[in-house]
Amino acid sequence: MLNKVILMGRLTADPELRQTPSNVSTCTFTVACDRNYAAQGQERQADFITVVAWRQTAEFVSRYFRKGSMIIVEGNLRTRTYNDKRYPDVKHYVTEVFADQVLFGESKKSSDGAGGNYAENRNFQAPKQEAPEPTVQKSDELTIGNFNEFEEIIGDNNLPF
Q1: Tens digit of pLDDT for each residue in 114-156?
Q2: Which domain holds residue 121?
Q3: What is the spatial distance between Cα 149 and Cα 113, in angstroms, rounded to a whole number?
């Protein structure tokens, strides 16, 4: 099976780097991607797609990209649901792109300063993340395996909704 997403668009806001309690870097940002067509006499519409980056990719995005920067994101599509706290019968659906690799979408000269302080080499890219070897941590009563497939959510204050 295949789950691959490639996006090119502009950031709608400055990315904000956060740290989980276990000091794992994460960054959530929105990419505005123009649609390929526009109805005659109308302006081209855009889709606003939420992207989540982790570890070195998150640090790379927060350091070198700003609002309006052209960005290329390669990753996979993920969906999740949650129940509303105020209205327990209301279920929310979220679709996000989890970034595997991020690239500059334009050179520094063509961005007119919107792209941050990155090197002139526009082929520079964030290091591709490789999954670490599975580790097993033992506590008194519980054996915990590899958490690579799970997103860590600590407390209600850090939730994006």
Answers
A1: 444 444 444 455 555 555 555 545 445 544 555 565 565 555 5
A2: 5-36+43-144
A3: 37
- For the chain, the straight-line distance linking the first and the last C-alpha, in angstroms and rounded, comes to 30
DSSP-derived 3-state class of residue 57: helix
CA-to-CA distance for 100 and 87, rounded, in angstroms?
35
* CATH number for the domain that contains residue 93: 2.40.50.140
pTM: 0.64
Q: Where are the beta strands (DSSP E) in 4-150?
A: 5-11, 16-19, 25-34, 46-54, 70-83, 91-104, 137-138, 143-144
The DSSP symbol for 88 reads T
